[in-house]
Each structure stands twice: as structure tokens, then as C-alpha cells.
Amino acid sequence: MPTTLDETTPAPLRPVLRPLPELTKAGARLLDAASDLFYDRGVRAVGVDLIAETAGTTKKTLYDRFGSKDALVALYLLRRAHRWREYLLAELGPLDGARGESQVLLVFEVLQTWMGTQRRGCAFVNAYAELGDGDHPAVPVIRAEKAWMRTLFDTLAGDVALGAHLHLLYEGTLVLLTAGANPLAAEEARAAVQVAMAAS
């Protein structure tokens, strides 16, 4: 499955596989500040004044580095997608020929560890809930992250129908771990994975 961007990358995955831009020190501080604020408070609730103040820079610096708040939101999500993918793939190991129940179960274990004490849920779902289905530059990144996870499950399951089932379990687990306040969601999902894979 694609993990980097090249000419063979399917179009739905391209927005989330493009490389991260190199940033100046001020740009990195702005992105760090914006990322924390966007995740904790929501993208609509956070203005450029607060981001610049938190980063110890000016609004002019923000606009010089990123062009707009919308572009900064998209980059926040792109970087989060890169970090999640790198974290997950480091735990899964090489995917060439890697299929089976143990690999799928590991995805849910890694998800539980990644979420840790985060209680705001999925950054991509949260952002989409605020931005909607418009022309915001973050929307393709959100959709591409979800498409990449679906592709991962298709690969690990070796079957697209089962992959769809597993992806739905994954997305439901994200919701139940946070909005559902169910600390056992990942454990319950792993049991459901075993049932689904045995039935297939």
C-alpha cells in the first residue's frame, strides 16, 4: 500500500501523502501552537491573533509563512496524518505480504496507545464537523487520511469487504474511546475483529 507519494499513488490518497514543507523556526513555533489550539479548542474557535501570541510571533509572520489560517489548518492535519502513519507503521513493521489477524489486532492496540489521555477524539472528524463539505483546503487531507486507513485494512485483511468492516470498527472505536467515554472500546473492538475475521 502507498506510504509515500509517487506517480502510481491513487488520487484519493495523494493529499495526505505529500511531503511536509520545511519550516523556519518561527514557522515551526506557529504550527506547534496552532496544532495544540486547533485540537483542544476547534479550528473555528481559534483566531490568528491567539496563534501568533501563543507562538511568540506576529500575525504578519503567520501570513508570511503560511498565507492564510485555512492553509495552516490543512498543514496541521497533514502533519498529524504523517505522525500517526509513522507511529503506526513503526509498530506494524514491513507491510509487504503482511496480512492476518495479528496485524489487524495490533492496529487497535496502537490506536489505544496513541489516543492515551486525549479526550477530544479524532482530529480529522472534529475538523470536518466544523468545516463541512466545502472547498476548504483541509477537506482533501481529512478524506485522504480516512482513505489511507481504509486501504491499510484492505491490505492487512487481504479482502476489500472485510477491510471495510474492519475500518468501520476502527472509526467506531475512535468515537467510543472519547465521545462514548468507553475505556474498553479498543478491547471490545479487538474481540469484534476476531469474530469478523473468523467468519470471513
Number of strands: 0
Give helix % range: 55-70%
Structure annotation, total helices:
10
Secondary-structure element pattern, one letter each: HHHHHHHHHH
Structural class: mainly alpha
**Under CATH, the topology is which?**
Tetracycline Repressor, domain 2
Name given to the CATH homologous superfamily: Tetracycline Repressor, domain 2
Q: Give the biggest beta sheet.
A: none
Mean pLDDT: 92
Percent in strands: under 5%
Q: Describe the global form.
A: globular
Low-pLDDT residue spans: none
CATH architecture level-2 label: Orthogonal Bundle
Question: Any overview of this molecule?
Answer:
The chain is an all-alpha fold. The protein has helices at residues 14-17, 25-41, 48-55, 59-66, 69-92, 101-115, 123-131, 138-157, 160-178, 185-199. It has one domain: Orthogonal Bundle (Tetracycline Repressor, domain 2). The chain is built from ten helices and no strands. Helix 7 (123-131) crosses helix 8 (138-157).
